[in-house]
Design a protein that fits this description.
Blueprint (H helix, E strand, L loop, with lengths): L1 H21 L18 E18 L14 E18 L2 E18 L2 H4 L8 E2 L5 E2 L9 E19 L2 E18 L5 E19 L2 E11 L4 E3 L2 H4 L1 E3 L2 E5 L2 E5 L2 E2 L2 E18 L2
Antiparallel strand pairs: 1-2, 1-15, 2-3, 3-6, 4-5, 6-7, 7-8, 8-9, 9-15, 10-15, 11-14, 12-13
Length: 275
């Protein structure tokens, strides 16, 4: 009886093993792998924001005020423009080159004595006895600095966390610096220097990114303000009359160097391709 029972149990175990071997094996669960964003390739975009900085007029030894300069005064205004760039990615590191050009309306004025002592009229006043009267400064005079465009070409180097890129940037910059006494036509001076800054960029779609950026622009060359029709005169023209003879001495034009720097805070929208 025992032998029969043992044989029956052994037969059942063998049958269950054979049945299990014939059952299908379940496939392992599939978990899709997240795609890491690629910051390589080219891009174009638009940007806009605000610029603020300082200007200073100085280095005019004959200035009637006797001061060396106007001192620093504020300039500010809005800007908008376009961006183009290309970059590559190695692991989490991103390196590229970017350029931009913005139209801007940056301006400011100073009413220091360095500015208000200048003369805009060079016609001398002379009384009937031939005594010279030097012209007085014009009322409401002030030094005015403005700029209507700024452009940069920069290296860009950053570190990416998938769709978020933090970057630093540095390179060359240029802008036109317009100088004049308030109310007179401006003297235009293209000037060049350097720029540096940092930014944060987010890829919110496969080919679209938005960035927030700060740049400091320092124009190392000094703009000139040395045309009488723009910047006035240190000494007016004079004349003396003796009998029927009038002797005229020409005016001495003002000759100032103008410094300009700018802080740019802006937001940009880029379309990326080739990545």
């Amino acid at each position: 009886m025992k032998r029969i029972l043992i044989v029956a149990v052994a037969s059942m175990m063998a049958a269950s093993r054979a049945l299990a071997a014939d059952l299908p094996v379940p496939a392992p669960a599939y978990y899709p792998v997240a795609t890491v964003y690629n910051w390589g390739g080219g891009y174009i975009g638009i940007n806009g924001g605000y610029g603020f900085g300082q200007s200073e007029w100085g280095n005019d030894p004959l200035n009637p005020s006797g001061n060396n300069s106007s001192g620093n005064f504020n300039v500010n205004g809005g800007l908008v423009g376009g961006t183009i760039g290309v970059g590559g990615q190695w692991g989490a590191f991103v390196l590229g080159v970017e350029g931009d050009f913005d139209w801007q309306d940056i301006r400011g004025t100073s009413s220091s004595s360095f500015c208000t002592s200048l003369i805009t009229s060079t016609i001398p006043n002379t009384n009937v006895n031939g005594v010279i009267t030097i012209n007085s400064p014009s009322a409401g005079l002030s030094c005015k600095t403005e700029s209507s465009w700024v452009g940069t070409v920069r290296a860009r180097f950053g570190y990416a966390w998938d769709r978020v890129l933090f970057y630093g940037t540095a390179g060359g910059a240029g802008a036109n610096v317009q100088t004049s006494l308030n109310g007179l036509p401006a003297q235009v001076n293209p000037e060049f220097g350097w720029t540096a800054g940092a930014g944060l960029e987010w890829a919110f779609a496969d080919n679209w990114t938005i960035k927030f950026e700060y740049l400091f622009v320092d124009l190392t060359g000094n703009a000139a303000c040395n045309h009488g029709y723009s910047c006035g005169y240190d000494v007016a023209a004079t004349s003396t009359t003796t009998g029927n003879t009038t002797t005229t001495t020409p005016p001495v034009g003002a000759n100032m160097n103008v410094k300009f720097n700018e802080n740019i805070v802006r937001v940009g929208l880029n379309f990326e391709f080739g990545h």
